Amino acid sequence: MRSKTKIKTFIFSVIAFIIGVVGGASTYVFAFSPESDTLFTIASGDLSVHFLELGNKYAGDCIYIKANDNDILIDAGSRQNSATTIINYVNTYCKDGKLEYLVATHAHQDHIAAFPSTSSRDGIFKAYEVENIIDFGEASKFGDVGGNKTPTKVYTNYVNERDAEVAAGAKHIAVSNYNQPDFQKVFDLGDGITLTILDNYYYYNQTSDENNYSVCLLISQGSNNILLTGDLELEGEEYLVQKNTLPECVLFKAGHHGSKTSSNNALLEVIKPKNVVFTCCAGATEYTTNHNNTFPTQDAINRIAKYTKNCYVTTVCTNTKTELDNEQFDKFESMNGDIIFTSNKNGYSINCTNNNTILKETTWFAENRTWPADGVA
Fold first, then answer.
1. DSSP 3-state assignment of 350?
2. pLDDT tens, 329-365?
3. What is the pLDDT of residues 246-292, one digit of tens each?
4. Pairing label, strands 70-74, 98-104
């Protein structure tokens, strides 16, 4: 497989060179999804947002963004063993070993576990030179839901390697300093693409729910707006609407993997998402054996359906209902796979490494969920 990919890469590199010569200043990146050998093309000036499958059965976030010469990684879940999958994927696009921006939204392991290394596997911090680290800073309560003061192991490992990266020259941008006068909130990624750190009340106020500390980001290219809110819950979403002027969004990563407590009406009625991505293993009983509340939940689907039918899911659990009732969720496969959103001045597209079937048209949905009567047809 590896030699086959090298041959393909060489062929398409030649094609890219010819196109570049003929087209003048235009340049193209040809890269493969390591999991599927699927070819994707990214032209210079394109913004591409990649929602990664993480190689295991757990819900978790990892979002890779290519914006001109900027390589951005938002979160690195779901477990430390996801690091190899993430690095292999990112390396098909990032050729200089440098991440211009690394974002850790909050301190739960399904968002930060693959950043640090272990004795047997390199993590993201070791694999790349990082220029800017944007994270929760002092807002986090050490990775424990409930505001406990005992740091989790994954939190401690993350902080230790983050601080080492800062000592080596990376800039640390902690959102707990959001109200400081010199805090940079907007980053120019070139060609009219911006990354904005949105205001979140819980950057500087305590909460009993670690999820509400999530770093919230808006990425914009003209009228194409993308909203990423980590695992923000109802209270956080309500404050997000109050404290920011949010635009309508062509893409929204469903909050908290599609939980019943996120992606609420207060937020959705403002952003009116045209496309929604669920980063989860659909139907897995990781957190509950109540099948309506496994990700993506019926409640979240009911609310989102009022605005769009274009919903995508990275992975699906394939255990039987009996196995799931016994909290056995060890079988999984790609639903859409890696989900790639590409935006430019002419519009946008969504392509997935497994298939482009929207959630409501999948077998899993037919067996486990219903489309609400007031949903978009």
1. strand
2. 999 999 999 999 999 988 999 999 999 999 999 999 9
3. 999 999 999 999 999 999 999 999 999 999 999 999 999 999 999 99
4. parallel
pLDDT of residue 2: 34
Question: CA-to-CA distance for 12 and 330, rounded, in angstroms?
Answer: 38
Which residue has tokens 């994270």?
Answer: 135
Q: Minimal CA–CA distance to 268: which of 241, 292, 245?
A: 241
Assign 140 a pLDDT band (cuts: 50, 70, 90).
Answer: confident
- Please report where in the chains the tokens 């499958």 appear, as a residue: 53
CA atoms of 99 and 72, how far apart (whole Å) = 6
Cα(81)–Cα(84) distance, integer angstroms: 7
Encoded tokens for 264: 């609420």
10 Å CB burial of residue 119 (0-12, 13-18, 19+) is exposed
Contact present, 28 and 44 (Cβ < 8 Å): yes
Q: In the CATH scheme, what is the homologous superfamily, with its name and number, of domain 33-368? A: Ribonuclease Z/Hydroxyacylglutathione hydrolase-like (3.60.15.10)
Task: Tokens for 239, please give them.
Answer: 């404050």
DSSP string, 272-341: --S-EEEEEEET--SS-S-GGGSSSPHHHHHHHTTT-S-EEEEEEE---HHHHHTT----EEESS-SEEE
**Using H for helix, E for strand and C for coil, what is the string for 142-166?**
CCCCCCCCCCCHHHHHHHHHHHHHH
Dig out the tokens for 232 from the structure. 């923000």
| 38-73 pLDDT, tens digit each | 666 777 668 999 999 999 999 999 999 999 999 999
Please give the pLDDT value at position 141: 75
Q: 200: helix, coil or strand?
A: coil
- Least Cα distance to 92 among 164, 6, 153 occurs for 6
Pick the residue with more confidence: 364 or 12?
Answer: 364
Q: Which has more pLDDT, 342 or 36?
A: 342
Mean confidence (pLDDT) of the chain:
90
Q: Cα angle at 151 between 149 and 153, to 5 degrees?
A: 165
Q: Could you give the C-alpha distances from 310 to 248, 275, 278, 320, 334, in angstroms and in order?
A: 15, 5, 11, 27, 17
